[in-house]
Structures are given as structure tokens and as C-alpha cells.
Amino acid sequence: MNSKEILLFDNRNDADQLLAKQTIVELAIDGERWLFTKYDESYFLFEKHCPHFDYPLKESPISGTGEVVCPWHNYRFSLIRSGSESEQRCRPLRVIRARVDDQKILVAFNSG
Ligand code: FES
Asked: Where is the Rieske domain positioned along the sequence (predicted)?
């Protein structure tokens, strides 16, 4: 399996400024749209639509335990661990934890 790392932000302050205005920001990365957020000092990308019935997740709240809560049926998808209760009812939400290197924010995508 190959991995490709992409630079999201040169400076994490830029990301923090964006996320101060809205909890979830939509980003275009390599021709695909992702949602970007921060929880507990870590940054995450996750897919735009709910794995349950495809509802847009951009306006979802992030719970105090790091779960994306879908506004439609309230399924909860953890950013930080797998095996949430919702994953027993539908497939998991695709989540990628970003890596912070000095001030840069990078994400690795697996392919192949
Ligand atoms: S569409 Fe998200 S919980 Fe049903």
C-alpha cells in the first residue's frame, strides 16, 4: 500500500483562524472534497457525507468526546477511535488524523 502525504497548511495558525470562525471547514484536496476540524489539539479530515443515508455533515456538532454527530438521525462517529455504536448500523466514517510537523499540517492518504 502506498501513502501520499499532502501539505494542508504551512502554518497551523492559519488553520486555527479558520476553525475559530466555524467548527468544520470544507477543503478541496486532490480533486476530492473533505471536511476538516480540530479536536483536543489534533486535526482531522473526514468525509463530507454521513455513511448512514448520505446526509451532509458540514453543520454537524462535534461532541465533547470527539464524535461527529450527524444532524439527521444523530448517529455518532468518533474522530479518535473505531468501533462506535453507529458503526454497528452502517459502515464507519472515513477519518484521517493529520500530522503536525513544526507548524505545518500534513495528511497522508493511502492508495493501492
Ligand atoms: S443520515 Fe446520518 S445518521 Fe442517518
From this structure: 40-107
* Residue 11 structural domain: 2-111
- The CB of 26 under 6 Å from ligand 1? The reply is no
Q: What angle do CA 10, 12, 14 make, to 5 degrees?
A: 80
Q: Who contacts 75 (Cβ-Cβ below 8 Å, separation ≥6)? A: 50, 51, 52, 69, 86, 89, 90
pLDDT value of residue 110: 84
pTM, rounded to two decimals = 0.94
Domain count, the chain: 1
Residue 91's pLDDT band (boundaries 50, 70, 90)? very high
Answer whether 85 contacts ligand 1 (Cβ < 6 A).
no
CATH no. for residue 83?
Answer: 2.102.10.10
- Report whether residue 52 contacts ligand 1, using a CB cutoff of 6 Å: yes
Name the closest-CA residue to atom 1, ligand 1. Answer: 53
